[in-house]
Write a structure and sequence with these properties.
CATH superfamily of the largest domain: Response regulator
CATH architecture of the largest domain: 3-Layer(aba) Sandwich
Helix content: 25-40%
Number of domains: 2
Number of strands: 12
Bound molecules: calcium ion
Number of helices: 9
Radius of gyration: 22 Å
Largest sheet: 5 strands, parallel
Order of helices and strands: EHEHEHEHEHHEEEEHEHHEE
Distance between the termini: 39 Å
CATH topology of the largest domain: Rossmann fold
Oligomer: single chain
Length: 248
């Protein structure tokens, strides 16, 4: 894996240069922007792994930049501010910043927070430790071969449908928000709509709908997200009233 790429957005050149110098020394690849418009342009074009974002910026303020980015991507945003009021922190977090630091700050602390945010955006150990093949009854999900079978039938899933189902199967019984699913399945650099998740869940349900004896179902948790439920007891394959995955 190459160096993580950080976009530093700061209009004061001395601070921007200091940040760049220190982050490069820590082994990161660093790009810079000096106003809000440029920040949005570079974020969209360069798809960095993380943005360090000053709030007081010319052209377009940092809060507005953060709010717009949040509609397009889940990439981590660390907000920097000269203001030190509780209100600013709350506003910063409400527009979707992942973390918040008040100037003046120590470079060591900034580096530590950058590392923590990047680590949080990585797949968890649980995901990395997933089994290669999941098999229950007629259902066989092979991560290595990227194949899914139900009985004799091979299902054709798109790459993202496969990744989404893979993540859900590896993390059953927990509700995942659309934002979490995008971060984990599409990656933190994804730019696009949250609705992408709904569309993929719908496609998965449609593809599995013909099969009645599945060992899981994808449940919509209204206002929150989706949860995969394992169905532990083996159902009779012929049971006519069990259409587990198509149910909303
Ligand atoms: Ca500034």
């Amino acid at each position: 894996m190459g160096a993580k790429h950080i976009l530093v957005v700061e209009d004061e050149e001395v601070i921007r240069e200091t940040l760049r110098f220190n982050l490069v020394r820590e082994g990161y690849q660093v790009s810079q922007a000096s106003n809000g418009i440029e920040a949005l342009e570079k974020a969209r074009e360069l798809r960095p792994d993380l943005i360090v974002l000053d709030l007081m910026l010319p052209e377009l303020g940092g809060l507005e930049v953060c709010r717009i980015l949040r509609q397009e991507t889940t990439l981590p945003v660390l907000v920097l501010s000269a203001r030190d009021s509780e209100l600013d922190k709350i506003v910063g977090l409400r527009v979707g910043a992942d973390d918040y630091m008040t100037k003046p700050f120590s470079l060591a602390e900034l580096t530590a927070r950058v590392m923590a945010l990047l680590r949080r955006a990585q797949p968890t150990a649980e995901e990395r430790g997933v089994v290669e093949v999941e098999e229950f009854g007629d259902f066989r999900f092979d991560r290595g071969a990227r194949s899914v079978r139900v009985g004799q039938e091979a299902l054709r899933l798109s790459p993202k449908e496969f990744d989404l189902l893979s993540f859900l199967l590896a993390n059953p019984g927990r509700v995942h928000s659309r934002e979490q699913l995008i971060r984990r399945v599409w990656g933190p650099k994804f730019f696009g709509e949250r609705k992408t998740v709904d569309v993929h869940v719908r496609w998965l349900r449609e593809k599995f709908e013909p099969f009645e004896a599945l060992p899981f179902r994808i449940t919509t948790v209204y206002g929150v997200g989706y949860r995969l439920d394992r169905i532990l007891e083996q159902r009779e394959p012929a049971a006519p009233d069990v259409a587990v995955i198509g149910r909303r």
